[in-house]
Design brief:
Blueprint lengths: L1 H22 L6 E2 L6 E2 L11 H15 L7 H4 L13 H13 L18 H20 L8 H5 L9
Antiparallel strand pairs: 1-2
Helix pairs in contact: 2-4
Length: 162
């Protein structure tokens, strides 16, 4: 019963936002800085993803994986938490997808050329978000990937709904 109520609450609160995407494609929502109110149909300005920077970082990851694609991620990379127990070959695709899902470059969460560094708090935040998404999908959607970063972020580092 609780699962059903949570699903309906999610749907009810998501409909205005999703309707904006349907009836006003291409427009994004933004949070009005002065009032904290959600403004529908307003474009949120943000720097685009630097695809050259992303591609260089992904190429670096693939070089490190070469010959170890089937090894566990934690054997190939340092400070792996979310992909522990998964193949190392999953990491490049996951990291590349995140740049689009959040509209950020790799250096938003990582220190360039020190990918295993724990220096940036955004890296910890991303891990928390992955755990949250995993919990929602496991507890409310029988493990199916129904909720993702895109569900809330829509290509923005900070969700336009709060």
């Amino acid at each position: 019963m609780m699962k059903r109520a949570m699903c309906w609450a999610f749907v009810v609160f998501s409909i205005p936002w999703l309707a904006n995407d349907v009836f006003n494609p291409g427009a994004r929502t933004r949070n009005d800085v002065t009032t904290g109110n959600l403004v529908l149909g307003a474009t949120q300005s943000q720097p685009g993803v630097n695809s050259a920077e992303r591609d260089e970082a992904i190429a670096d990851i693939k070089k490190r994986i070469a010959g170890h694609e089937d090894d566990l991620a934690e054997k190939v990379f340092k400070n792996i938490e979310i992909l522990k127990g998964k193949k190392a070959s999953r990491l490049p695709g996951m990291m590349a997808a995140l740049t689009g899902l959040l509209g950020v470059n790799c250096t938003y969460c990582h220190v360039k050329d020190k990918w295993d560094s724990e220096e940036k708090p955004t890296k910890q935040t991303a891990r928390k978000m992955f755990r949250m998404i995993g919990g929602i999908n496991d507890n409310y959607f029988e493990g199916q990937n129904k909720v993702s970063c895109w569900t809330c972020h829509r290509g923005n580092p900070h969700p336009p709904i709060q």
